[in-house]
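User: Before I run my own analysis I want an independent prediction to cross-check against. Here's the chain; please return only the C-alpha cells and, at the end, one sentence I can use as a sanity check.
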Amino acid sequence: MKKNKNAELISKTFFRLLPIQILLALVSSVNGAISGIFGSNFVGASVMSAIGLYVPISMFLMAASMVFAGGSQILCGKHMGKNDPEKTQDIFKLSLLTVIGFSVVTCIILLLSVFTNLTRVFASDPVTRDTLNKYILGQVIGILPLMLGQLLPAYLSIENQSGRTTISGIVCILVNALANLLFVVVLKMSAFGLALASSAGMWALLCVQAAYFLSGKSFFKIKHKASDWRGSLDIIKIGYPGALSNIYQAIRAVILNAIIIQFVGTVGLSSSAASESILRLFWAIPYGMIVVSRMLMSISIGEEDRKSLADVMRVAMYKCVPLMCCVSAIIILCAVPFTRLFYRDPADPVYGMTVNAFRIIPLCMPLSIICMHFSCYAQASGKQFLVHLLSLLDGVVCVAGFSALLVPALEMDGVYISYILNGIVCAIAIVAYSWVVRKQFPRNMEELMVIPDDFGVSENERIDISVKNLDEVMIVSQQVIDFCKSHGIDEYRGYLSGLFLEEMAANVVEHGFKKDKKSHTVDIRVIHKQDDIILRIKDDCIPFDPAERLEIFDPKDKMKNEGIRMVYKGAKDIRYQNILGLNVLTICI
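Assistant: C-alpha cells:
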C-alpha cells in the first residue's frame, strides 16, 4: 500500500485526456498550415500578407471561444465537484445559446466591415485590402461551427466520448485539404477559396461532434424548461479572464504588424505568417494541456481538494515543461525543412527571416507552460489580479514593448527574441506575486500557487491513500476506523465507515480491475467535516454506478448484491459521478 499516490492518478488522467485536446487544438492550426501551404504555392505571396492581416480577427475569435469554453468548463467542473447535475445541464444549454448568439452577431459585423470597406483599418493598400476582404468572406461562413466546435469537446470529454472528438478533427482536416484542392487548385478561387475550404472543414467537424448530442444518448441535453439567463453572464464573467491573454494578443498582433511594416516591410509579414502557420501546430500541445488542466483544476476546486489542485500544477511543471523542451528542440532542428515548405530561395530575405523564426521562437515554449498554467489556475480560483497581470504582460506589454526596442536594430530577430524575454518576465512575475501576497519566498507548490489556508480541509482532518489489491483494502479499512476514533466519531459510525469503505473499494478491486489488462489504482480520501465522515472513492476503471446494480437485481433476492444494499441502506448520502473517465463515489456517514 502506498500513500500519497493521488498525483499518479491525476497524471494518468491528464495524459489520457491530453491527446484528444491537442488534436482539437490542432484542427485550426492544421487548417492554417494547409491554407499557408496552398496559398504560398498556388496563389502567391500576396495572400500570405492577407492571412497575416487576418490574424488579429482570428485571435479575437479564439479569445471569445476561450471565454465560452473556459467559463462553461469551470462552472461545470465546480457543479460536478459538488454533485449538482441539474446546474451542470443548465450551463450546457446556456453555453450553446450564448455561443450561437455571439457567432451570428460577429458574422454580421464582419460582413458590414467588408461591404462598407472598414477593413482599411487593417490594410490601406487597395490590392491587399481586396484580398483580405475575399478572405474574410470565406471565413465568415465557418465562424459558427468554429465557435461551437471549440465548446462541445469539453462536454464530450465529460461524457467519456473523446474518441468522437478525435474523429471530428480528422474529418475536418481531410475535408479542408480536399476543399483546398477543389477551390484553390482546380477552381482558382484564390483567397476566398482558401477561407471557404477552412470553413467547410469546420462544418464537417461540427456535424460529427453534434451528432452525439442529437442521438438522444448523451447525458447533456437541451431541456425546454426556462433557464436563469444570469448563468450566461456567469459563463462570461468566469471565462473572460482566461481569454484576456488572447484579447491582448490580438491587440499585440495589430501593434506588431505596424512595427514590422514600418521597420521591415511586407516581407516581414510574409515571414511571420509562414512561421506562425507551422508553429501553431506545435502550440496546440500547450493549448491542449491548458484545457485538461482547467477541467481537473475546476473539479478539484469544486471538491475543495487542495492536494489534487496542487498535484495538477505539479504535473504541469514537472512533466509538461520537460515535454515542451523536447518539442522545442525538434522545431529548431527542423527550421530549414519547415521554411522550404513556403520559400525555396535562400537568397530571398524572407527565407532567412523564416529560418530564424523557427530557431528562436521555440525557446519560449517551455516558459509559456508556466505562465499559461498559472493563468488557468488564477482564472479557476478567482485570483483576478494575477489573471490580469499575466494576461497584460504575456499578451501585449512584454512582446510589443521589447519588439519596439529591438526591431529597429535587429529587424525580425528582435520580434522573435521578445517572445523569450516575455516568458522570463512572466515567470518572475509569478514568483513575485506569491512572495508579495504571502510575505515570504515560496518554498513549495502550494505556497507558489497561494492556495488559501482555509481552502478545503486541513491535513489533520483527512487521510489520502491509494490501494491496488484486496489486502491493502483491509488495512485501509482499519485505518479509517482508527481515524474516526481519533476525531471523536462514535464507535458505531466509525465501524460503518470502515465497513462501507472495505465493501465499495473491494468491489472495485474485484470487478473493475479485471475488466481490462490495464494497471489501476483506487484513490481513497476520508474527510472529517462538521461531525460527518465523508468517504470519496475514485478509480479509473470502466464506468460503474452502484445504484444501477441495485436496479438490475430483484430487490427481493437478499443474497445478491448484499454489500451494496447494506451501504445504500446505512449511509446518510451516496452520490456517484463519472467525471472525465473517472468513477467518483462519495459516501457521507
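Sanity check: The radius of gyration is 26 Å.
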